[in-house]
Amino acid sequence: MSERQVLIVDDEFAIRDMLRMALELSGFRVLEAENIRDAYTLIIDERPDLVLLDWMLPGGSGLELLRRIKGNEVTRELPVIMLTAKTAEDNLVQGLDVGADDYITKPFAPRELMARITALLRRMPGGEHLEKLQVQDLVLDGDSRRIFLGERALEMGPTEFNLLQFFMSHPERAYSRSQLLDQVWGANVYVEERTVDVHIRRLRKALQTPDNDYSDLIQTVRGTGYRFSARGTAAR
Fold it and tell me: Which among 9, 116, 202, 209 has the fewest CB atoms less than 10 Å away?
């Protein structure tokens, strides 16, 4: 973890300075940018391991940069944590829908942010070994961190991958949003339960292809949360 590199994208020097000191004390190397243009150049040239991205930036919003990152095949797997002063749920969900892996609302404690960063990087390729799992034509290969539905490789973000891996490892049991946060995001990471719903929606979408639809494997359990189950589904 000590060799990991984080890019801070924020136009306020005081915030960048605070984040840089906290990151360096935790053993990270740090890159800084104060606008979208410089940030994207650093992403392409330096290939950071994670981006801390402010919502409001000169010359465009952080959401615009997020769309560029997630829309580029080379950078789409780059994990992004949004830094935002916006507290309206719709704004936070919008960032997650575009592809943000997490968000944290200002003001925040550096300790909480470090916990979020550590948990997110742990879920990235190169983390814990994951076994090969299969349910009908759905195959999750932990070694390569690839997922196949029939002959088709599915495109899926790191959080959705880990969520699916947990579900496939623990089928037929209902989990609350709080339990899923503890198991997939980490017990010491403070994330709103609404975040789970956004990633569940993304996961279901990823499990739909022109040839197959496995989205119904992720079942909503009213009053509880979610369950992974192949029972009752038609043979495919």
Answer: 209
Angle, CA 163 vertex, CA 86 and CA 94 arms, to 5°: 25
Tokens 């984080």 appear where? 6
Superfamily of domain 5-122: Response regulator (3.40.50.2300)
Residue 187 confidence (pLDDT) = 56
Q: How far apart are CA 192 and CA 199, in angstroms?
A: 12
Lowest-confidence segment of 86-95, 139-148, 199-208 by average pLDDT? 86-95
What angle is formed at CA 195 by the lines to CA 189 and CA 200, rounded to 5 degrees? 120
Beta strands at 56-57 and 60-61: parallel, antiparallel or unpaired: antiparallel
Which one-letter amino acid corresponds to residue 10? Answer: D
In this structure, which topology does domain 133-228 adopt according to CATH?
Arc Repressor Mutant, subunit A (1.10.10)
CB pairs under 8 A, 24+ apart, for 102-106?
102/159, 102/185, 102/191, 102/195, 103/195
**Residue 91 pLDDT class (50, 70, 90 cuts):** low
